[in-house]
Amino acid sequence: MNRGCSLLRLALLSLSLALTAVMAAAQPYPRKPVRIIVTFAAGGPTDGIARVLAQDMSVMLGQTIVVENRTGANGQIGTVAAARATADGYTLLYNSLNHTINALLMKAPGYDPIKDFEPITLVQTSPSVLIVGAAQPWQSVQDLVQAAKAKNSAITFGSAGVGGSAHLTAELLRSQVATGMTHVPFRGNAPALVDVISGQVSFMFHPMSGLNDFIAGKRVRALGITTAQRHRLFPDLPTMKELGFSGFEESHPWSGMLAPAGTPRAIINQLSAVLLKSMANGGIKKRAEVYGTTLIGGSPEDFRRFLVNDAARWRRVISNAGIKTE
Asked: Under a CB-based contact definition with an 8 Å cutoff, are residues 190 and 158 in contact?
């Protein structure tokens, strides 16, 4: 009798566990908190946009979304961590231009930017402005180019480091004017901007965000912007395209949401739809304007095509510039 009762209890327990598993599987995604890995430090524009999106998405999904800043190696550490995470929708990656560039510049990046991820949505792009110190004599991009041709590599350009957007955008300019310019890498945009203001560095392509005060205060002079059309914040500033330079409207740093390869398509589509709703939120649109970014959106397939084209574009620039891999 006792043996029979024990067997019955085991059978009932097994049935209960099986039913629990079936019910859990039937529950809609997400059933637990979601983690978003951001490859930039807290407080910057990329992190800021990621956090306001995460907050809004958590309300719509009915689950906590935790933003985890995994910095280091120009974002490679966080990107690799996301690529190796379980493909179940509970680890996402909010990444930027470094997603593509690291894979082109590093000998062993530890991930493939296309094959190892499921794109969700391209969130935003950030235009750059070509600036020189206010004391410099150049009044136009053409003046700067002529000076570069006359001085044979004495013209320098600053950046936040090798392979960053400011570096590669300036290399794009150098490739089109076929003249010498010397790259001066810094550890961030802020120290590069200081040396542009002082005249120690000739020019740089700086993100539009945060430049208003420096331009209005006549500490720097803006010569061109990388947008396809003139920007509402700088209506008198010509675009690089207007000035005869091509491809700069495609050189913008970008950021977008991705998941590890193999994440179920239904989850990718659900996250994309929720993310697009968040991007339509008026408060988030205003935050993007503060950061000087343009919200993009689009489907996962649109983002995949963008990534493929982004890799091809920067591969050409890196090859033409002779930038060495690490």
From this structure: no
